[in-house]
Amino acid sequence: MKDVQTHLSRLEAEAIEIMREVVSEAENPVMLYSVGKDSAVMLHLAKKAFYPSPPPFPLMHVDTTWKFQEMYKLRDRAAKDAGMELIVHQNPEAKEKGINPFDHGALHTDMWKTEGLKQALDKHGFDAAFGGARRDEEKSRAKERVFSFRTAQHRWEPKAQRPELWSLYNARKAKGESMRVFPISNWTELDIWQYIHLEGIEIVPLYFAAPRPTVERDGLILMVDDDRFPLEPGEKPVMRSIRFRTLGCYPLTGAVQSEAATLTDVIQEMLLTTTSERQGRAIDKDQGASMEVKKQQGYF
Amino acid sequence: MTDQVYKTDALIAQDIDAYLESHQNKSLLRFITCGSVDDGKSTLIGRLLYDSKMIFEDQLAQLEADSKKVGTQGQEIDFALLVDGLAAEREQGITIDVAYRFFATEKRKFIVADTPGHEQYTRNMVTGASTAELAVILIDARKGVLTQTRRHSYLCHLLGIKNIVLAINKMDLVDYDQATFDTIVADFTEFASSIGIADFTAIPISGFKGDNIAAHSDATSWYSGPTLMAHLEDVDLDQNTSATQEFRMPVQWVNRPNLDFRGFSGKIAAGTIKPGDEVRILPSGKTSHVDRIVTYDGDLDSATAGQSITLTLKDEVDCSRGQVITAAPAPLEVADQFETTLIWMDEEALMPGRSYYLKIGAQTVSSTVAEPKYQINVNTLEHAAAKTLELNAIGVVTVTTDRDIPFAPYAENRTLGGFILIDKMTNATVGAGLINFALRRAQNIYWQATDITRDHHANLKNQKPAVLWMTGLSGSGKSTIANAVEKKLARMNRHTFLLDGDNLRHGLNKDLGFSDADRIENIRRVGEVAKLMTDAGLIVITAFISPFRSERQMVRDMMSPSEFVEVFVDTPLSVAEERDVKGLYAKARSGQLKNFTGIDSPYEAPETPEIHIDTTAMSIDDAAEQIVKLLEPN
Fold first, then answer.
1. Residue B27 is a catalytic residue
2. Long-range contacts at B254-259 (CB < 8 A, ≥ 24 apart)
């Protein structure tokens, strides 16, 4: 970005610095790619950080097989456009057991995402994994480091975090240990949207309102994205104009009713809204400390 | 009080494009809040988030529920709960770790480092202060300037924060009394000038009630200064200062997509650069001119401090990660020994003489830290003698690096003068340092090689130098095996020298005892001697207990790659004690000999030695043969 004085250009410069540091210090880095808007920003930043070289690491999607169809489409195209290798990992055990969000509740996230991620990192021997987590998302994230050290068992030890001073990141680790690295730690949801707007970054169309087939479950509006969605007897999907503020597994991601069909409309709506981003995610609805527990176990 | 002066809903609703346009031009300020729970720090931050509309309805609902359950404000909203994140902290009601919060107003985005104020968390406060441009120091109006106020102010000043805000909080509990406010300001002024804080801004506030946070309070009509929010929005940024300095950019990464492009990527630490500018690369001292400033968004006509860029140069000069590209007419100083202020951050105390990694800019080097000149009491600021630095201690120490590094004093530039120390064994970040000045300047930054190099020395002897480092318990057989190895090598016409622990302690190391610190210094000196001998082309055989992994690693790091051969002479303690050739174990057991390895001083066995000799299963000759075999290619 050309104007160095703005907050977005400073956040961008910081993220680029972090990415270059990882590539210089890690042996085998990877960028986790979830196809959401934060991932889109991460990928864009990676292109900028290493230009004119392509980003010197692969993209990896830890897939649950339950993402929205439109996410899969964009995923494949985005990786190709960036000239990067795309690794897709699906936990074979979860696949075999047919783990799904309708029948297995919390086990779904644990098996597909938490366990799947650990398997994938071990399988490829990645010692540094970029993630798009932000400190403003959730209280325990507010205290996580940019370079977040994980034990050989992928555990996060909140009490043994390394102090992080200036922009000096300590990436040293023993064999088997790894780092999760969060270059956009200091961005907020609004920063992400403004940056997408300013840089013209492509995001999944699901972020924009359109008529989509939906049902209502436990106060969440869910989209019936494919025929695996178990409808109740007599239940019929209703067309509603909806969009998503956050994207995950379609049966776990609540939509908001909205008419915001363009990027500026979405930002406008977001600015005027009164509920926080994670409210649409079933995974965070437990007690205040639940994310801390999940992270200790290895969830991103 | 919360009349939402930052309410911008009207503009957002009417003209979102205009809104976005104006918000793309916001600046960014990072600040730190210092104070303890009692000062209302978390409450203040919660209030800033609330007043700038960063709290959503669902969060507010959760907050209201939490406030009733575990809050400390009765039925009122406890803003502190909003920011106390980790479960351990919520239970204990204290803020243990550094947390980062975000809010934005019309003019600026803010990143707040929320850090604990107790003395045992100095480490965390220093961490938060390292990236802050402004500090909000909280004072409880009922209590005035306390020891901790002085500690917080000193640490912020030490870490180079130029903008200090004295937020005199809980004014509602002293009936908004101006005299109380004035007394505190006078007290603080006296202290501040004594430690070199030239200027500060004092604001009477109530985080709980919201007075003078976002809007002026009617209750303090005697106060005509800015509100806290207005001050945060208007204060001058550090980036404006660093942009006016000479150009400096540590090289993070060499960008080589193909043979035709070679760029140097980094974030500009100071100054401005344009194509055509002459630059000097440090520490090599080579010069060239900037060809292009390459970014994804196209080439730039100029770039300035804070930007992440890629430079290409007109000449094919050597430049790699860790080197610093500087303005040619005004390069940085280069040195390998420094007076520094060191903040210790690890449970395990500083070990003077031990080798630690030192990371500064984009460079990681080996370093040793001398015994502190003195320790600084963060409460009284008095100097006290110290042998080491414990967790949270601050001291002035001499740091020596194993090579020349370009630097600027910390007070001049944080990026070029701030460093961290990393433990070589645990990889933990154990210390944070600020370079005050160089103690030994590099004689000549334009490197002059001596005509007869170490390669010449080695070639004349027709061999490759090496260090065969025997380590093991006393009585394990190190000296015996070393002697056998040297005899075999002599028969092969190899030029060798045997350094023996006992023998060196009669001369070079006669001033050293057997404390941990002396053992470290003993090994350091042996390492230096061995290094000189390998420079002279010799194969060096050493026989020292050398009980600590770190020191063996330190010696390994001194040598060229693959020159260091660690030989673990593995004899179980019971066997060595039974042999007891010198009668030392008996003395140690009877208490006549202190700090004896294996008895009352630890031995850290090598984890991956090049050679592992089990003396209970192998003869001396076989052991020597195995070692010599490894050296045959030499």
1. no
2. B254/B319, B254/B320, B254/B321, B255/A50, B255/A52, B255/A53, B255/B310, B256/A53, B257/A52, B257/A53, B257/A54
